[in-house]
Amino acid sequence: MTNPLNIARLPRPFDPALGEETRATLPGVTGDHARLIAGAGGTSPYLKGLITREAAWLEAALDDPEAAAAAVLEECRELAPDQLKAGLRQAKRRVALITALADLAGAWPLEQVTGLLTDFAGLACDLALKAEIAALIRRGKLPGQGPEDVAEAAGLTVLAMGKMGAHELNYSSDIDLICLFDETRYGLDEYQEARASLIRATRNMAALLSDKTADGYVFRTDLRLRPDPSVTPVCISMAAAETYYESLGRTWERAAYIKARPCAGDLVAGERFLQTLRPFVWRRHLDFAAIQDAHDMRLRIRANKGTGGPIVVPGHDMKLGRGGIREIEFFTQTRQLIAGGRDPDLRLRGTVEGLAALAGKGWVEPEIARELTDHYRAHREVEHRIQMIHDAQTHRMPATEDGIERIACLMGMSQQELRNQVADRLARVHALTEDFFAPDAVPEPEAEEEAAEGLDTSIMARWPGYPALRSQRAQHIFDRLKPDLLARMAHTAKPEETLLAFDGFLSGLPAGVQVFSLFEANPQLIDLLIDIAGTSHALAQYLSRNSSVFDAVIGGAFFSDWPGEAALRAELEARLAAETDYETQLDAARRWMKEWRFRIGVHLLRGLIPADRAGGQYAELAGAVIAAVTPLVIRQFAAKHGTPPGRGAAVLGMGSLGARRLNANSDLDLIVIYDPQEAEMSDGPRPLAVRPYYARLTQALVTALSAPMAEGRLYEVDMRLRPSGSQGPVATSWASFTHYQRQEAWSWEHLALTRARVVAGDAELGRDIEAFRREIVGGPHDRAGLIADVAEMRERIAAAKVPAGLWDAKTGAGRMLDLELVAQTGALLSGSATRDVASGLKGAVAVNWLSAEAALVLERAYELCWSVNTAARLISSDGIRDEVLGEGAAAFLCRATGSETLDGLRQRLAHGYERAAAVIDAAMVGERDDDGVPGAGDDSISKGSAA
């Protein structure tokens, strides 16, 4: 069964007489197929020669071109070593011929045309290389390698680069290759001999492919993309290449490796090498500095190749000129470099596939991606017609009328139509891509002076000495940003205050190129930075040390709805699963957590969420981190000491973590409970008795969460709420925990259980712990004794911790800790298993310890205290003081608490503390006013207290 070449369009002959002459060589071909032969042979001297030489084969090939092409590749695989030179050249003629005719006829799309050319190139490389390797092994020139190693080319891999790597070879392309060998296959005493032999094999492979003979050539071969080609041999070890890229690799080399693909030799070793280069090619953070690098490359290419002139069709370079193929490739690859480190879905080799992926992820507008794809396909067709004329590796439109007419003939259109179409497409591509790249000009000094009017120039004068501005490149980008930055500061409520805050951010920034490039490409981030700098000193300081978290604003659904703890855990687990090294996983967890914590802070700062919701989100984030990191720690520990004996361990979140209310700077109160059952020892290579096993496992978990690493720390961890406090073991057995809680625990320890929550570990043990917690909380409890104990605790806390001032909403009578203590007491007295303050206060009402009115007073007081404390922790990790409270921070405090003015908020706080303390004092001694609420006529809390 045949599948004849489908004719969708036809070229016309530039020279009809030559067309008829070519047609006559295939007398059995008629109709549109004959007209196709006449058009191709009558316009392209190269195609006429191929048709004449391969006429007998071509006549049959037109009946089923795809089968004919597949047969050519299969025949190549059967070639004997001494037949390769002639056999591959004949195959090249046939592949070039059937590809050209299918392309001219519109029978095959661009991907099929370039795909066949690429597949043949890869096969030719593989056959030529393995023939050389086999010869070396037969002569004993590759120590330690035998005939069975030919299949892997004795560890030598050929990386296809550029268009070959992306399966996009053009019609008359050379092939860019990097040849590397796996040095681990050879001993130290074998290395030099093997290296010399593999270099010889690489040279011979390249010569077999590129030497011109009477039969033609296979492919022009370029080996200059390897590391430092002026001083390195044509084949180097993978270790040497990896060292080069890690220490000296440049942005253009990163871009080149987007398309890199093992195509011949040891494919497995090639893939392994590309995996080792992944951190070099795909940076962890959004890499907007690549835009400037790409722009600089474009300018250098234009200067070196003379392609920087205006768009004029005659003589225009369709690849390197303005609006050409390279512009679309740079546009695509640069965006892939920017975001591909964070999103593996963008790590695609093909230009068309890359544009589609970028559009799907929101990095390119879909209509722009579609238009650039259309222009890219059209440009490639024109490029192929240019190369079909004489099989020349050129991308320039002919400069003469006759030359352009030949291209128009192969395109099947008039010359004027071709000129118009090419000019329009070049201009449109230039318009779509040029603005993406960083501008080269620095604003005039007058623009900066105008923007800086009214600001303290002495502050700006010290900026050039900051680490972020040490490099000329950073200074150049910052100079372009400066007028816009200063203008935005000048329009804030307190410009001098904002300038000082920005100065603090800039001074703490260790490097500037990436951050400034990020701002230049995304000006909306400048507004966010100015907002943060003018409001939250703590967040601005944090940003200066962790500027990569800006990535989250533009690299994902930053302003989408909160996903919830389960979704967060799944996302982090997937992120960790992508890494193999334990420390790399812990650093990945730190980066991920910082981005989400930054998101919560920004949402709170901008009024997108209230303080209570922020507290819940901070807690869910911490829960997700603990739940995802704990299994990592267990696996790492188990590798040495065996799997956890018995049922394993569970992690209990206490305090604010258990109650799902954390702030930006909260530490984590944790208890680890384990159940060894009947086990006495672990079963690993270095077994441990159960008690030291779980003690050391707990220490490993605390280290994983709290140790400072390259990406900082996750959380501070406090284990003092465990049984017997800091004097007891860091991990508690299930039997000891239950016995202690039933027989020895103090009242405060039962109070603490009202807020406890299992956050990680063995699910069955976790369910048992929760059931036991409910049993303990459910009582019975000695009411009088418990209230007396709580009263004594309040006195001791008051003696030990004095409030730092009005803005310290946490410590002191009638403030957060005091209110939480009352709520926990209410939960314990009522046997309520719920963990929040409001439910605990309702429990106090249910047992008639508080009146409903008193509980409402305390609940509203707590809401106000929580809002103030949460906002204050975001403003400054050290707390806030009136003398350093800026206007932006004051406005944020008012917005977070629903207060109209800062003075009004001060009054609400002072009256709220006083009234809540009076309610609690009365409850402790059983004294109430007639209506059950001390000072019931005072409505200072109720006004606006729902905020």
- Average pLDDT over all residues: 88
> What's the story with the biggest beta sheet?
5 strands, mixed
Number of strands: 10
Q: Given the C-alpha coordinates, what overall shape results? A: elongated
> Distance N terminus to C terminus?
79 Å
**Structural domains: how many:** 6
The fourth-level CATH homologous superfamily of the largest domain is Beta Polymerase, domain 2
Determine the CATH topology of the largest domain: Beta Polymerase, domain 2
CATH class of the largest domain: Alpha Beta
Q: Beta fraction of the residues?
A: under 5%
- List unreliable stretches of 5+ residues: 927-947
Radius of gyration of CA atoms, rounded to a whole number: 36 Å
Q: Which CATH-level-2 architecture of the largest domain?
A: 2-Layer Sandwich
Please report the number of helical segments. Answer: 41
Helix percent band: 55-70%
* Helix-and-strand structural type: mainly alpha
Describe this structure in words.
One of its GO terms (molecular function) is [glutamate-ammonia-ligase] adenylyltransferase activity. This is Glutamate-ammonia-ligase adenylyltransferase. Strand 7 (668-675), helix 32 and strand 8 form a beta-alpha-beta unit. With 947 residues, the chain is mainly alpha-helical. The chain is elongated, with a radius of gyration of 36 Å. It folds into 6 domains: 1-107, no CATH class; 109-281, Beta Polymerase, domain 2, CATH 3.30.460.10; 289-434, Nucleotidyltransferases  domain 2 (Four Helix Bundle (Hemerythrin (Met), subunit A), Up-down Bundle), CATH 1.20.120.330; 445-534, Up-down Bundle (Four Helix Bundle (Hemerythrin (Met), subunit A)), CATH 1.20.120; 617-777, Beta Polymerase, domain 2; 783-925, Four Helix Bundle (Hemerythrin (Met), subunit A) (Up-down Bundle). The chain contains 41 helices and 10 strands.
